[in-house]
Amino acid sequence: MRFVVHEHEARRHHFDFRLEIGGVLKSWAVPKGPSMDPSEKRLAVQVPDHPLSYGDFEGVIPEGQYGAGPVVIWDRGTFQASSDDPEGDLERGKLSFTLKGRKLKGGFTLVRFKRREAEWLLIKQSDGFAERGWKISSALTPARRKKLHS
Predict the structure, then answer these.
(1) Which of 17, 26, 97, 105 is most buried, with most CB under 10 Å away?
(2) pTM
(3) Who contacts 17 (Cβ-Cβ below 8 Å, separation ≥6)?
(4) Residue 42 main-chain phi, psi, to 5 deg
């Protein structure tokens, strides 16, 4: 199964974290982006599923459409769910998994807030890939923006 993280400069700059589960990309908007620091729990708001083909998308969503603005792939790779039932884990509100990406590696957990159906926390597990004080870097450089618009 694969994962992708899109960096998206729409109305507000954010990162879209996507996991291939059940034939779709389950998706969460992560305002501050994922973190490799286990002490930084990141808000992840679940958004509608996306088709698998969207995992390869980079470009500019035109003005007037939902999510208008540039989108680039910030990271991608594969993931392994900690159980044999990731769909059931999501329904129950807690999914643990291991990422094998270029930037994101090791164990993570998504935990749903009990009273807010769409709100989750994305948490890096303490493992050999954890990095205290880790800071996210933007892939939306001026040169990349120019290339997307041409």
Answers:
(1) 17
(2) 0.93
(3) 3, 5, 27, 28, 29, 30, 34, 44, 122
(4) -110, 130
Q: What six digits make up the tokens of 96?
A: 């643990």
User: How do residues 17-32 score in pLDDT, each as one tens digit?
Assistant: 999 999 999 999 999 9
Q: Between 10 and 75, whose confidence is greater?
A: 75
Among 93, 141, 108, 100, residue whose Cα is nearest residue 41: 108
pLDDT at 146 over 80: no
**Three-state secondary structure readout of the chain:** CEEEEEEEECCCEEEEEEEEECCEEEEEEECCCCCCCCCCCEEEEEEEEECHHHHHCCEEECCCCCCCEEEEEEEEEEEEECCCCHHHHHHHCEEEEEEEECCCEEEEEEEECCCCCCEEEEEECCCCCCCCCCCCCCCCCHHHHHHHHC
Q: What one-letter code names the amino acid at 147? A: K
108 residue type, one letter:
F
